[in-house]
Amino acid sequence: MDKILVLDFGGQYNQLIARRVREQRVFAEVRGYDKITLAEIVAAGYAGIIFTGGPNSVYEESAPHFDPAILDAGIPILGICYGCQLLAWMGGGEIRSAGNISEYGKVELLPCAPGDPLLRDVPETSVCWMSHTDYVSTPPTGFSVTARTRSCPCAAFSDPARRLYGVQFHPEVTHTEYGAQILRNFLFSVCACAGDWSMGDYCQRAIAELREKIGSGRVLLALSGGVDSSVCAALLAEAVGSQLTCVFVDHGLMRKDEGDEVERAFAKWDLDFVRVNAVERFLTRLHGVEEPERKRKIIGEEFIRVFEEEGRKIGQVDFLAQGTIYPDVIESGLGAGAVIKSHHNVGGLPDAVEFREIVEPLRLLFKDEVRQLGRELGLPEYLVMRQPFPGPGLAIRVLGEVTEDKLAILREADAIFREEMAASGQERCASQYFAVLTGCRSVGVMGDARTYGWTIALRSVTTDDFMTADWSRIPYETLEKASSRITNEVPTITRVVYDITSKPPATVEWE
Ligand code: XMP
Questions:
Q1: How many angstroms separate the CA atoms of 337 and 343, rounded?
Q2: Catalytic residue (one of 172, 376, 412, 511)
Q3: How far is the CA of 440 from the centre of ligand 1 (A)?
Q4: Spatial separation of the C-alpha atoms in residues 103 and 169, rounded to whole Å
Q5: Are 324 and 347 in contact (CB under 8 A)?
Q6: At a CB cut-off of 8 Å and minimum separation 6, what does 124 contact?
Q7: How far is the CA of 496 from the centre of ligand 1 (A)?
């Protein structure tokens, strides 16, 4: 299998570059520039390397650099933005910083070297996307300029003999009209990749590797019903089904019918599926607790406790499996951000379960690739396409104290909203949508009588990464239908409001 290394110098698009390469059916992995040595790169047999962008200037003392001997390792390199400047700097070229040639946004790209392998089939003028102040003023010996823009004298350069290429612009963003063509040229013409990486192959290889690694050992997996842990379970089930125990902790904080759906999806495999009914113990521990962070902590702790108890019942476990996916793994150059909410994932490691090793079979995959793998393994579409659902479940969507009654009300309203989103085709446009039971009661009128019931808030957001999110512009008709059905079908609800706050300043969840 051909592999491309995306060497990360702190750019914001490092994951996107890897995605774009994988879209061409070539496997790509991202490594921090300081997490891999030249010897390791050579030993790994990469077909090519892409240097990412980054926030630094190559002459800064703290700027990330790499061993210049990489230029003579015989491996094709494509430097993007900072990566392009670094490539020039390593080769003895000159970089300048000049405010008057800063380019941000869409810029006209003007190739000037017909026949250059990297820019093959890129027309005389097209749009590229730039974001830089520094630029390569003098390319290193052996390199020639292959494209310019009106303000940048070196928008691309190359040394085809050594298979070294640099582009000042970002071919990985869709605003660069011929970005995909340029990446294809690099992968197939320069690196001679075969483009034969497919999810079916990946699936078969992963199954074979899991069998070899696990041998006759016992595997334990905490199954939350979310996409990642479900696909992880399905992969392990296919590989070592009879040696797998999936512990599904039913904390009673799931959406309507969710627990049964998860259980049904795994019925076809011969595995030990343990559904632990822990509803009462979670609700007992949450009794009287109103503070969101306290609720999150309690749920996280209780989850681990239940899981540990089940682990002890099972006895000797050799492997603990986790549904960690690639974005969780990539080492980013950025420092740790402030804790806004303490996220609870079922991946939290229990101390009392003894195991030899952790297996994380999805650690190389992006979210949509995980979904694709799920389909490959025959998981139902509703599970594979499930929107993200927080570990603490509906407990952080019932504001204030969580009770069984409130959960039941929220479940009904949420199910109606989801049905209406699906019926109107809006589910494809929104990244996540749900209902929240606000702690607020208000006066209404039904028939001729006064009512005093709960206020439900509907929330729908669109986002790429959930770090920022915009509220969805759902058609009034969909909102009207949902509102009318909720107030008619869920007796204690008298009012429905729609949340029109983006993140920031709000978060996606209300607690
Ligand atoms: P926030 O509310 O932080 O949510 O803007 C961003 C995304 O994260 C999900 N979320 C969680 N996921 N455990 C999780 O696994 C958690 O504790 C948790 N809290 C929020 C939220 O649903 C949204 O997709």
A1: 13
A2: 172
A3: 23
A4: 9
A5: yes
A6: 110, 111
A7: 23
Please state, in angstroms and rounded to a whole number, the distance separating the CA atoms of residues 250 and 270.
21
Which amino acid makes up residue 389?
Answer: F
Three-class secondary structure of residue 2 per DSSP: coil
Confidence of residue 465 (pLDDT cuts 50, 70, 90): confident
Question: Is there a contact between 218 and 245 (Cβ–Cβ < 8 Å)?
Answer: yes
Structure tokens at 237: 């089930």
User: Which residues does residue 350 pair with via DSSP β-bridges, in sequence order?
Assistant: none
Nearest CA to ligand 1 atom 9: 390
The pLDDT of residue 335: 35
Q: Which residue reads 């990464």 in tokens?
A: 465
Q: Which two tokens stand for residue 176?
A: 């660069």
**Cis status, amide bond into 504, omega within 30 of 0:** yes
Residue with tokens 């483009």: 195
The CA distance from 149 to 133, in Å, is: 14
Cβ partners under 8 Å of residue 305, min gap 6: none
Alpha carbon of 464 to ligand 1 centroid (Å): 14
Please state, in angstroms and rounded to a whole number, the distance separating the CA atoms of residues 241 and 245: 8
Q: Residue 172 catalytic?
A: yes
**Which member of 84, 103, 132, 170 is catalytic?**
170
The confidence score (pLDDT) of residue 100 equals 65
Which residue, chain included where needed, has tokens 């690694």? 213
344 catalytic? Reply is no
**If we measure between CA atoms, which residue out of 413, 428, 491, 403 comes closest to residue 459?**
413
Cβ–Cβ < 8 Å for 289, 295: yes
Question: Using CA positions, which residue lies closest to atom 17 of ligand 1?
Answer: 343
Pick the atom of ligand 1 nearest to 388's CA. Answer: 24
Instruction: Render pLDDT for 341-386 as a digit per residue (tens, 0 to 9).
Output: 565 554 455 666 678 888 999 988 888 899 999 999 999 998 999 9
| Residues 311 and 220: beta-carbon distance below 8 Å | yes
Ligand 1 atom nearest to CA at 387: 24
Residues having CB closer than 6 A to ligand 1 are 296, 341, 343-345, 388, 390-392, 432, 466, 503, 507-509
| Alpha carbon of 390 to ligand 1 centroid (Å) | 5
Per-residue confidence (pLDDT) for residue 336, from 0 to 100: 36
Give the whole-angstrom CA distance, residue 428 versus residue 463.
12
Radius of gyration of the chain (CA): 26
81 is catalytic: yes
